[in-house]
Specification:
By secondary structure, the chain is of the alpha/beta class. It has eight helices and nine strands. Strand 3, helix 3 and strand 4 form a beta-alpha-beta unit.
């Protein structure tokens, strides 16, 4: 796909192969967000793990202190009326039991995140072919299967994000918006790096942070020196 003039002009202003410190990268990436909307700032980190091995899959959630700047549409599956009311009060966009399962089964996917109470999982599990490929299947490891659905809604609406290694060992997380101050992007980046360090698989050997890149939604990427990612953590 042909690149626009703003994109081309932006990449001329810096060396795309240079390895920056995290703080340099956060300052620079903001200048590369030239779209007419408030672009997301996305971080991709290649980890020294083998995702083919179950004990080296890195997966979980992390609460970004400065939030993500995104509006997250949350669906809650629960058959408990009190939990349903609490989830609605907490800001859930869709709340329901069997009727919500039926809607999703029929093709309704107007949400970005799904949370389920444990008693609903036998029914929600039937939606695996619909939710799984879209990364929407609730999972206890990410806090999206929980008896306290209202608390989960508050957390994910407030800036908690999921992360998981893909088949190449990459973690991709949005750490904010181009409108964020560099200091807030740094806070979120540092929190993510600290979290990944905490969950490093014991069986992973050698270097853990292999590559790191930060980029706006529509702009070019900025490389971060993988040996320096913990400077901000």
């Amino acid at each position: 796909m042909a690149k626009g003039k703003k994109y081309i002009d932006a990449v001329k202003r810096y060396d795309r192969e240079h390895l920056h410190s995290p703080s340099e990268a956060m300052d620079l990436v903001k200048t590369l967000a030239t779209a007419k909307f408030d672009e997301s700032i996305d971080v991709t980190i290649r980890l020294g793990v083998d995702p083919r091995k179950a004990d080296q899959i890195v997966r979980g959630t992390v609460a970004l202190p400065a939030g993500t700047g995104k509006t997250v549409r949350v669906a809650v599956f629960t058959s408990n009326s009190e939990s349903a009311a609490a989830a609605t009060e907490a800001g859930a966009d869709l709340v329901g039991g069997e009727e919500l399962v039926a809607e999703v089964e029929g093709g309704m996917l107007d949400f970005d995140l799904a949370i389920a109470s444990p008693e609903m999982m036998p029914q929600v599990g039937k939606l695996g072919r619909v939710l799984g490929p879209r990364g929407l299947m609730p999972n206890p490891k990410t806090g999206t299967v929980t008896p306290d659905v209202a608390k989960a809604v508050e957390q994910f609406k407030g800036g908690t994000v999921e992360y998981r290694t893909d088949r190449y060992g990459n973690i991709a997380v949005s750490i904010g918006k181009a409108s964020f101050e560099p200091a807030d992007l740094m806070r979120n980046f540092a929190t993510l790096v600290d979290e990944l360090n905490k969950v490093k698989p014991a069986s992973a050997k050698g270097r853990y942070f292999l590559k790191c890149n930060v980029s706006p939604t529509m702009g070019a990427g900025v490389k971060i020196d993988p040996s320096r990612v913990t400077e901000s953590a």
